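Protein modeling request. Please complete all fields; requests missing the sequence field cannot be processed.
Requester role: graduate student
Desired output: 3D structure, token encoding
Chains: 1
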Amino acid sequence: MQSKIAQKRTLILMLVPCLVILCVIIIIPLINLFVYSFYDYKLSNPNGMEFIGWKNYSKVIKDKEFLNSLIVTGKYVFGVLITQIPMGLLFVEVLSHIKKGSGLIKSLIMPPMVVPGVVAAVIWRLMYHPSTGLINYFLGVFGIEHAWLADPKTTLASLIVVDFWQNTPFVILMMLAGRSAISDDLYEAGKIDGANGWQLFRHITLPLLRGSLMICILFRIIDSLKGFAHISLMTAGGPGNVSTTINYYAYRMAFTYTDIGYSSTLGVFMLLMTTLLAVVLLKIFNKGASN
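Delivered output (291 residues):
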């Protein structure tokens, strides 16, 4: 009995440092976020904080800039998912049929994933440069020259391309991990029954990749919602506000207009939106699994 109690005490003591770090870097900032959202708190105001209740929340609902950032964020997240998830599934299918050289291919597609976001943003900004960039240099052969980041019609798509380059390897890695857990016997049995490649993918690969697919989509949604480096260094939310996402709008309100209270309210909205999307996604996948 004493030994079990001693073991529990030891386990609790070992968990204490992790719990302290968790509170310092997650719990306390979240509490402050919620608290500040109820205050008129501007760094430029010498009178300090003033409690205003729900006024910041009512302001968000009427804020046209917020509504625009919400639409931009939706387009950005949709663009990320619609390009990266199908490409990840395609790579998984291709690599699963390659016996020799698959390890080399995996090694070649992984490096962009480990490049820091700041470095990737600087590199691609130079590549997108209308006069000296490599993209226009190669497209110039076909007589194409374009200011990719300065044109409102192509700005968001250009950012999605950068995200595709950097984060698709993560999607592929997650899919490959799920694909490696599927027994080859299932595919052999399907081939014996006369199933073609598409039928094997639809009835074996996709259902058994459901868990990996869910985690992948959830991670990419969260990462896209809180994406900052690419937008900040490549477009600064412009031109105009065509690339101003909710996260960047909250940053701008806090550090450009020094409105910490309203920025905290935007952060709360983003947190609630992310939680809601995660819950909906889990329900969709769980419903599909039960069927």
